[in-house]
Amino acid sequence: MNTKTRLYTISVYTENNIGLLNRISAIFQRRHINIESLNISPSEIEGVAKFTIVVYMTEVNIRKIIGQIEKQVEVIKAYYHDEENTIYQISGLFKIKSKLLFEEPQIQNIIKESNARIVTVNTAFFVLEKSGRKEEIVKLHEELSVFGVMQYTRSGRVAITKDEMKISTLLETYNN
Amino acid sequence: METKTIKDSETSTKVTERISGSEAIVRCLIEEEVKIIYGYPGGAIMPVYDELFKYQDKIHHVLTRHEQGATHSAQGFARISGKVGVAIATSGPGATNLITGIADAQIDSTPMVCITGQVPSHLLGSDAFQETDIVGISTPVTKWNCQVTKAADIPEALAKAFFIAKSGRPGPVLVDITKNAQFEEFDFSYEKCTKVRSYNPVPKTDPSCIEAAAKLINTAKKPFIIWGQGVILSEAEEQLKALVEKAGIPAAWTILGASAIPTSHPLNVGMLGMHGNYAPNVLTNECDVLIAIGMRFDDRVTGKLDEYAKQAKVIHFEIDPAEIDKNVQTEVAILGDAKVNLETILPLINENSHTDWHQKFKELYAIEYEKVIKNDLHPTKEGLTMGEVLKEINSQSQGNAAIVTDVGQHQMIACRYAEFNKTKSNITSGGLGTMGFGLPAAIGAKMAAPEREVVSISGDGGYQMTIQELGTIFQQKAAVKVVVLNNDFLGMVRQWQQLFFDNRYASTEMVNPNFVAIAEGYYIKARKVTKREELAEAVAEMMESKEAYFLEVCVEKEGNVFPMVPSGASVSEIRLE
Q1: So what's the pLDDT on residue B13?
Q2: Per the domain annotation, does A74 fall within a domain?
Q3: What is the DSSP letter of A77?
Q4: Active site (annotated) includes residue B67
Q5: Residues B58-74: pLDDT tens digits?
Q6: Three-class SS of B236-268
Q7: Is B321–A21 a contact, with Cβ atoms under 8 angstroms apart?
Q8: Cβ of B136 and A22 within 8 Å?
Q9: Do B146 and A19 touch (CB under 8 A)?
Q10: Is A68 an 8 Å CB contact of chain B?
Q11: Phi, psi dihedrals of residue B504, rounded to the nearest 5°
Q12: Cross-strand partners of B526
């Protein structure tokens, strides 16, 4: 088993209940593990929520964490995957002064090359959106920072795994 | 996240009755066959108390003197009976006072349902009088919890609560019910919960693991069984005994596993862990196959993990998958119910006796006897020892008493020396180490099993943490025998100060009150013993008493508990002096 600290994506399928976020985050807090990113969304199954949690950990410890998460009554199943087995995206938003578009023509090239999308423009500012891997968003931020960014934010990771996650089958066995 | 609305059962043809939420709470308890509950009233739970008043012929409510006492009593009740203990309290401080008991029940896997009142839902989040976020506070120490804000949700929430508390690896649950939900009327019907979709209480056993384990056990030269409370919780005592006897395997127990197999059984080789017996600790590091049953390799049992049973192949019978490989790497993990799995493995096990291996345990016991046990049980020097008090209780109860202990030196001595003939006879706070647990837990145990002799043994420190529960004993006429082993010290901490902090006794000396007068103040018969000559007769008087009895025994002030695995040391580095 891998004993090096690596980036893992944890996927937790749960009932959609109040308080579960607390229960799950407490498991990380107890062990002093910083959550790099967290996203909660509906999943492919109606009524089932999916937590996507990104953490730096060793495989030995992540297995223990998965056990602790699955132990929670309202958790259906939890998985962990390394970077090679995860397809993921995050999204970044940038608010920039509109006049810079004309004063700094370089910005237009950056937008084009980065495949970023302009979400809205008005006389005062425009908002740029870029989805991709974290490094791409960070790079774009660095490039734009030179000219001044009024606001910048990055979403948590959303991820799909190469593996099959047999939640529907699992739910059926629970129902029988 | 959205609130999930609780759906009505589609196939429902149940007869319903229009009642209030608070009456529904009491009716749910009756449906769950609850006969005794422990609690303390207050503003936000008053509608429920009003109903308890009406239903007092069906449910006996025990007014403890503090909400913490209510939880410990519920725990004592659960531990001796195997049933779910119930504690009830009001919002705010009433609810927060439950937390220690809840945390204790969580770490010791005790089935308990706590019901708390809450401010009306329109005041939630407004910092209302006696409002506290008890669901938030109790989350890390409960197996499950929820808040109910509508009367109609009460039956399902409580049904789920009882099911979750008792099933799989048991634990405490908390249901917080707002006052408006208690007042509201709705159409009541009750259906017991037998399933929660996302919850898998007993994981499936892989039959190939059973076979692999049997093979390991059959080929082992020096097999060693260590069992925990899981054996008691799954009522696998007979199955464990059958395995131990058929395969001739020496077996030792964690503190919470005590009494599952009688102390006198020839293959019962004693207690594991920090103050456990010499042989089982040392030989953990010599066995070739270590068979752990319903235990979780707590650090007090394992000592230094890097030097724990490294030579052994480990088989782990366990209901909670999160415990597998948590602390100790297993060769074979047998998930599922201990009773079922021990029954399955037994026919695959060859008969054996392992006489030479067992002899090693006897040899080490002889060493421990010479160095420690003899002086504890048959002291020659002046000053009563805690051990001789236990010996006296053993001989006069003939090992039939349930021993309820608090936390500290007396606890270790009691667990080391108490003789148990029956299972579920050792009630103590293991994982959390909660001082103050003993007295209220003994009340709960006595009320759950009035036919049994229940002896509460505490130290002078822990006793004073919940001493007010003497009031509960008096009011309930609970015939608990209360023993305080008084050394005028917080003995265990003092022992550590002596051994590891150069005798600096920082805040461990206790200037104690007149304990006899206090007990008598509650109209409880009381006696104090300071001399060896009086001990047997005083214990006899206590045991013969038909009602509650308080016995203070003044023991040597600076006695130490040995053997001892120093914190951070390996189990084989156990010290005898």
Answers
A1: 58
A2: yes
A3: E
A4: yes
A5: 999 999 999 999 999 99
A6: CHHHHHHHHHHHCCCEEECHHHCCCCCCCCCCE
A7: no
A8: yes
A9: yes
A10: yes
A11: -85, 105
A12: B550
Give the span between the Cα atoms of B566 and B354, in whole angstroms: 31
Is a pLDDT exceeding 70 seen at residue A176? no
Q: Does A1 map to a domain?
A: no
Task: Report residue B557 as tokens.
Answer: 């002030």
Identify the DSSP state of B312: S
| Rounded Cα distance, B480 and B455, in Å | 6
Domain containing residue A29: 6-86+161-175
In contact, B553 and B485? CB cutoff 8 Å: yes
Cα-based distances in Å from A121 to A95, A117, A118: 10, 11, 7
Please tell me whether residues A96 and A128 are part of one structural domain.
yes
**A166 and A80 within one domain:** yes
Which residues are within 8 A (CB) of B483 and not within 5 positions of it... i.e. 6 or more apart?
B389, B393, B455, B456, B457, B458, B542, B551, B552, B553
Roughly what angle, to the nearest 10 degrees, separates helices B21-31 and B154-166? 30
Cβ-based contacts under 8 A for chains A and B: 64
Helix/strand/coil (H, E, C) string of B118-182?
ECCHHHCCCCCCCCCCHHHHHHHHCCEEEEECCHHHHHHHHHHHHHHHHCCCCCEEEEEEEHHHH
Distances (CA, A) of B424 to B201, B269, B338, B419, B491: 22, 18, 16, 12, 27
Separation between Cα atoms, residue B432 and residue B259, nearest integer Å? 20
What are A14's strand-pairing partners? A49, A75
- A54 and A65 part of one domain: yes
Catalytic residue among B31, B35, B46, B130: B130
- What is the count of structural domains for chain A? 2
Q: What is the ipTM of this complex?
A: 0.91
Phi and psi of B87, rounded to 5°?
Answer: -125, 145
Residue A175 to residue B133: CA distance in whole angstroms: 33
At B36-50, the pLDDT tens digits run 999 999 999 999 999
Q: Does A3 touch chain B (CB under 8 A)?
A: no
Quote the crossing angle between the two packed helices B532-544 and B386-397, to the nearest 10°: 40
The minimal CB distance from B321 to the residues A23, A67, A174 is found for A67
Cα(B13)–Cα(B474) distance, integer angstroms: 47
Quote the CA–CA distance of A128 and B477 in Å, as a whole number: 75
**Which run of H or E residues covers position B62?**
strand B60-63
Helix (H, G, I), strand (E, B) or coil at B494: helix
Whether A94 and A59 map to the same domain: the answer is no
Say yes or no: A80 and A13 in one domain: yes
Please work out, in degrees rounded to the nearest 5, the angle formed at the alpha carbon of residue B507 by the alpha carbons of B504 and B513: 130
Residues whose CB is less than 8 angstroms from the CB of residue B136 and which lie 6 or more positions away in sequence, other chains included: A19, A22
Please give the backbone phi and psi of residue B489, each rounded to the nearest 5 degrees, phi first: -145, 155
Per-residue tokens: B346: 């037994």
Tokens of A122: 């008005």
In tens, the pLDDT along B287-330 reads 999 999 999 999 999 999 999 999 999 999 999 999 999 999 99
